[in-house]
Design goal:
CATH architecture of one domain: 3-Layer(aba) Sandwich
Structural class: alpha/beta
Largest sheet: 6 strands, mixed
Distance between the termini: 70 Å
Number of helices: 24
Radius of gyration: 36 Å
CATH topology of one domain: Rossmann fold
Strand order of the largest sheet: 8-9-10-6-11-12
Helix content: 55-70%
Shape: elongated
């Protein structure tokens, strides 16, 4: 395949890749999702990631129909990467995309959850050994030897036994292939790879080679200081030629640890003086030792390469397995950190997004206390499970409405609800567990998520409609998650347009949740739509707004300005300022404000 056939590879990028790593390696990096190879070749990480996402899941990226949906997708990847055990795993996480095939989603889910179970079966000490093995693998910048050493460390940490115990016939996790590797062969290969540095045999592998190298280094040093050698011998009282030659042979033998015969074989027959004799002998001896080093090095290297070749199948399997383990273990740690569950994929005969005790991952990453919510749109079967807890109104979400209009107080969690649904659908469609105790999810061709944007002009209205209407009109399975549409146009027109969007969503057979403060203006809703409400319940003793974030189904959630005004009255520092807020209290109901403040003090 030609480089320019890949999305995002234009003439400049193609030339940069060809000049740095060549076409073949560039194609291999793109096909394998190798972010590091592309960044080392000179591409920015962002550009490399975008190319790889399109190359390895381009159709899945089309599911993200709006910029806000793409933002949620990127936020999820950032959260997942926090649990990556290697840089390579983080790179593979960066190029995860939504999938379109439910079988592929299920297969990835199976592996992630089996890996999670195997990981939890390890004791704390073994987990530390596994993480240390991956840290060493990362420090070595991966490679064949690092992968073999990592595989050996993982085997020794007991992951194979933990894998067998955890899965117990329920399918394989990524640790299982380690059990099929020949540990002894891998050990020999590790030692062999440790002894090789390219074509060079490193020091300490072969005593004879090390001795020859030391001898060569000594002889080269003597050659560089030949005049000092001559002077040293003469200072020792050496006289005639024969006596000088004998003393020289002994000196070189003792210094360089070589045999007399090796030195004598290097001596010239026709030296004209001592300087010529010593210089010629040392140079010839150096050449002889250099040849000996080369021959021995090649012999040892050949033996080492033979050990690697004998274990080639296991070595290749270790390289592939270690990378897969790092990737899936990272995903499993993410799932474990957020107590995530397996989503139930709903078949094509019905569509739904239904969750029990779902949490928003962005909030959970920043706070220890997040109120889980139960919510649903579409035809779900949550009510068939005995373990579904009762909601605020003692019933599970209705199953007959494809569209919900979500109402309630400001800061009541309505936008967070939409974002949570978007997170859950995206995670499920990427083949990952979701942050809920139970979830039923359909797959979608388009996810239209639109956050509230406080810009009030015709240009914003037009661009918003261009973003959210075409996916709804042209795709078969669309999820609409639209937040405060009225923020971008005047209330009267906003109500009419929003009512039209609700009708269009119903008519197109899509699913949708629309957050709005204009619920009364949307009546009557289509039969397939309902209104849900989120309610503020009062002020805390610290005068913080207390909200029940669990929506109540089939009812309008009202704004509660008396709570806000009550807080302003209580916190006013200036008498005239307080008088101004008390005037507002009269407008919203002075008795209500006083009762709110009394309740807050009582609760304190």
């Amino acid at each position: 395949m030609q480089l320019e056939e890949y999305w995002g590879v234009g003439p400049k990028t193609r030339e940069a890749l060809m000049d740095s790593i060549g076409v073949e390696d560039a194609v291999r990096a793109i096909e394998n999702g190798d972010v590091r190879a592309l960044t080392e070749a000179g591409l920015s990480r962002g550009r490399a990631t975008r190319i790889l996402r399109r190359a390895n899941g381009g159709e899945g990226m089309d599911v993200l129909a709006t910029g806000d949906a793409r933002d949620v997708y990127r936020e999820l990847l950032d959260l997942i990467q926090r649990h990556a055990v290697t840089h390579g795993a983080a790179d593979r996480i960066r190029v995860l995309t939504p999938l379109l095939d439910t079988d592929e989603m299920t297969a990835r889910l199976d592996t992630v959850l089996a890996t999670r179970d195997a990981w939890t079966a390890l004791d704390e000490g073994d987990r530390e050994r596994v993480l240390d093995a991956f840290a060493a693998y990362d420090e070595a910048q991966e490679g064949e030897r690092a992968a073999v050493d990592a595989a050996l460390a993982l085997i020794d940490a007991g992951v194979v036994a933990a894998s067998e115990e955890a899965t117990a016939g329920d399918g394989e996790d990524v640790f299982a292939p380690l059990g099929r590797l020949d540990r002894d062969a891998l050990g020999d290969a590790s030692a062999a790879l440790a002894g090789l540095d390219g074509a060079t045999v490193i020091e300490g592998v072969d005593d004879e080679l090390d001795s020859l190298r030391d001898s060569l280094a000594t002889v080269e040093r003597l050659d560089a200081n030949a005049l000092d050698v001559i002077e040293q011998l003469r200072d020792g009282g050496v006289g005639g030629t024969e006596e000088f030659q004998t003393a020289f042979v002994e000196h070189v033998r003792s210094e360089a640890d070589v045999t007399n015969d090796r030195v004598r074989d290097a001596m010239p027959d026709d030296a004209i003086d001592a300087t010529d004799f010593v210089g010629t002998t040392l140079r010839e001896l150096s050449n002889d030792l250099r040849s000996a080093v080369s021959e021995r090095r090649e012999l040892v290297a050949s033996d080492l390469r033979g050990d690697v070749a004998a274990a080639r199948e296991d070595v290749d399997a270790a390289v592939e397995t270690v990378d897969d383990i790092a990737f899936y273990l990272s995903l499993a740690r993410f799932a474990l950190a957020h107590e995530m569950c397996r989503p139930e994929f709903v078949t094509a005969d019905r569509e739904t997004v239904a969750v029990v005790d779902a949490s928003n991952l962005s909030l959970a990453a920043e706070s220890e206390s997040v109120q889980p919510i139960t919510y649903a749109i579409g035809e779900h079967t949550l009510g068939e499970y005995d373990d579904v807890p009762p909601r605020a109104d003692d019933r599970t979400p209705p199953a007959e409405h494809r569209v919900a209009v979500v109402t309630g107080a400001n800061s009541g969690g309505k936008t967070t609800l939409l974002e949570t649904l978007c997170q859950i659908v995206l995670l499920a469609q990427m083949g990952l567990p979701v942050p809920a105790s139970r979830a039923q999810v359909s797959t979608f061709d388009s996810i239209v998520f639109h956050r509230r944007h406080a810009s009030f002009n015709a240009g914003v209205l037009e661009s918003t409609l261009r973003n959210i209407v075409p996916p709804l009109s042209t795709n078969e399975r669309t999820l609409m998650l639209v937040d405060e549409f009225e923020a971008i146009t005047e209330p009267g027109s906003a109500a009419d347009l929003l009512h039209g969007l609700v009708r269009l969503t119903v008519d197109r057979g899509a699913l949708g949740a629309f957050v709005t403060h204009l619920a009364d203006d949307l009546e009557p809703l289509p039969e397939a739509a309902r209104t849900d409400g989120i309610f503020a319940e009062g002020l805390s003793p610290e005068l913080e707004l207390e909200v029940d974030y669990q929506p109540r189904f089939g009812t309008v959630g009202r704004s509660t300005p008396e709570f806000i005004v009550s807080r302003l009255v209580a916190n006013a520092d200036d008498r005239s300022e307080r008088a101004g807020f008390e005037t507002l209290a009269e407008a919203v109901g002075h008795d209500v404000v006083q009762r709110t403040l009394a309740d807050a003090r009582w609760n304190g």
